[in-house]
Write a structure and sequence with these properties.
The complex is a heterodimer of chains A (108) and B (363). Chain A has 108 residues and is mostly beta strands. Chain A has one helix and eight strands; from the N terminus they run ββαββββββ. The chains are: A mainly beta (108), B alpha/beta (363).
Amino acid sequence: MNRIFEHPILGPLEDTELVRIFVDGEPVEARKGEVIAAALIATGKQYFRKTIKLQEPRGIYCGIGRCTDCVMTVNGVPNVRTCVTEVEEGMVIETQLGYGKWGRGINS
Amino acid sequence: MMDREIVVIGAGPAGLSAALEAARAGAEVLLVDENHKPGGQLFKQIHKFFGSKDHQAGVRGIDIGVQLLEEAKELKIDVWLNAEVCGIFNQNEVWIVRDKERSVTVRAERIILATGATENAVNFPGWTLPGVMGAGAAQTMINIHRVLPGQKVLMIGSGNVGVIVSYQLLQAGADVKAVVEAAPRLGGYGVHTAKVRRAGVPFYTSHTVLEARGKDHVESAVIGRIDERWKPIPGTEIELEVDTICIAAGLTPLVELAFAAGCRPVFSPVLGGMVPVHDAAMRTSLPSLYVAGDISGVEEASTAMEEGRMAGLSAARSLGHIDDATYRIRYEAVENRLLALRSGLFGQKRRDAKEQIVSQSQG
């Protein structure tokens, strides 16, 4: 778990409603209102997608929706910027290969 | 098509300040931002700001953000979130896509661009590995999303962003293994640098990162000494066991909208690269377009807020909302605060660079 529960300036992490998302088929509890990338980092996910030619792993880079390095397939839609897209109950998130395919991710 | 007197693009410190100032002057303002929350990068700045009392020195960025949003609410400023500006046509038509599904064009008499900046990358073997990220990205993760992108961090760059984020990573519970600086001297404000030093973090000057190693994620980083010509010196390599490498190598203004609209550019290496030429009142080469904040040259949130006030003030005045005497008083107050922020060892360079840009707007 990589969540920051206690913080000297920001105080304790407030309790919030949880939502259940599915990451490559596995159910994961996420905090309502957080972005997908945060929920995945909290679980320790190592990479978010792989490049098409060399199968190189990629993760977050800019964290504010500019660089598109962190894109994944979300609810069947490829190339969703996970650092600026909020989690939703029942959301299906899949590690993406290359430009992705409509309807499925790398492992489905 | 709908009409608004002033459209402000970007709801960060500059855009919010511009919208507030223009609304206070009596202008009808629409503030748009592509994100689902306003504030830009203000809410990740949990450190206290510099400057004098007039600049809210000693107040944390995050608290200033809350205050600006409250004022925007009181003034009933119309704010569109999840609203992406895709283009500006005929110097007064703003094409906005709302919630990724509705296309709206707003005709504005004045447009204030406060689009901010983006972090620079440094390329080295392995830099695309997950775990290599902008220092600002790590700051967003820890201070806004409350997750640690890694436990053992290497910071590249000892400027203000490098040392402030290093300290905030320590506050968040990470172990900062080292701060690497390519220049022979450290670049950040002494106060922030000293805090990181006191925490026992080693600083390597005249060093650079040579490689990131790892399979699916960063597992280690190789750093090495560089000579006066910035070439790595063989035999000086050190391998550090880290899972995160943060890059704090400056920012580049987000100028696409301004240049696509036709604003005249000028190159300002000190302020981050190509920026729209503007006068001291923040008006660009196009009479209906203004800029404020990092898009007009990368500085700090405190200067961005003053520039926003300046842009909001001058745009409102150009529409006849305030009389000359009131304008003069407010203009000078903002001008004086900007001069104070651009003084001292670090400020003077930025002040000279700003004056260079402004001189381009005359003639």
